[in-house]
Amino acid sequence: MEKIIINTPFSRSEIWVGEKWESVSRLLPEKGVVIITDENISRLYGDRFPDFPVLTVTPGEGSKKLEVVERLAEKLLESGIDRTGFILAIGGGVVCDLAGFLSSIYMRGIGCGYVSTSLLSQVDASTGGKNGVNLGSTKNMLGIIRQPDFVLCDPAMLITLNDQEYLSGLAELIKTAVIGDRDLFDLIEKNFDEIINRNSDLLTQLVAKSVNFKAAVVSEDERETGLRRILNFGHTYGHAVELQKSVKHGFAVASGMELATDFSFEKGLISLEEKTRIVNLLLRFGLLDKHDIPDDMIEKLISHDKKKAGSDINFVFTEGIGKAVVKKVSVSEVIDFYKRFRDK
Length: 344
Hints:
Blueprint: E1 2-8, E2 11-17, E3 33-38, H1 39-45, E4 54-57, H2 66-78, E5 86-91, H3 93-105, E6 111-116, H4 119-125, E7 130-135, E8 138-145, E9 150-153, H5 163-180, H6 182-190, H7 192-196, H8 200-220, H9 235-245, H10 249-266, H11 272-284, H12 295-303, E10 308-309, E11 312-320, E12 323-330, H13 331-342
Parallel strand pairs: 2-9, 3-4, 3-5, 5-6, 6-9
Antiparallel strand pairs: 1-2, 7-8, 10-11, 11-12
Helix pairs in contact: 2-3, 4-5, 4-8, 5-6, 5-8, 5-10, 9-10, 9-12, 10-11, 12-13
């Protein structure tokens, strides 16, 4: 078990990796707690939840919208939750996003903690304080950065994930390795069978390495004005693929990473050997699929990207495994590269 701390000018967040999720009770207030989860997690683990009221949402990205937040807020009010209240999210990225966003705006802010149940959430979504909901077809357009009091990551919970959910999280793990941890990349590359078989000890090690890297980045740049931008590697194209193909987030990010790696190679930032290693690792885990976004749609989706600033985008490139760099690139160049890649 490892305890990782995120210290920012305004908050302190504890991430516990490798601890049994049932121990969350010791981290909670004695009263005034409401649990937010989804139907799948409630079915699997609900009989072992702490003894507090439970609010349940429909699983999936479709729940990340303001009307769901509004409904949950009304339930909090009906339950008598005041400014001393606390929200415990037990779920993956969607549940943690909803709970974090709600906790930041309900009565101008109440406490919040997460039991992170998916690999995607454990290695990425639940760490760092980004919380938000979608605006129509635009991902995470409405949100806030506010650290949870704690995050608990129990690798035993990953056994119950279906293969698609598990591999989706693995893509974000590979992203972390590509942008900032060459040793993590080597570890993933050399332990294919153990990762596929969900070896608990190895997963604890992998999640801890990923969280440690992200914690260091967020502690230095919580508001994403500089270094934290590298965490968006693969996401400019990935969000477009996710919306166009309606695939799970990690698979879309994997496609985005392939595009960003190829873009980096075209600009002379990465060698052919390392480009091939990155793409082959994504292929080996079955994370890449074909995508063919029409011209008008790719132009619209890239133009709505949150990283856009005027006619430019802060685009994340790789300069080799374990190293990322952010460069301002024109929106038109990003769109044109996608068209060239698509038409190869």
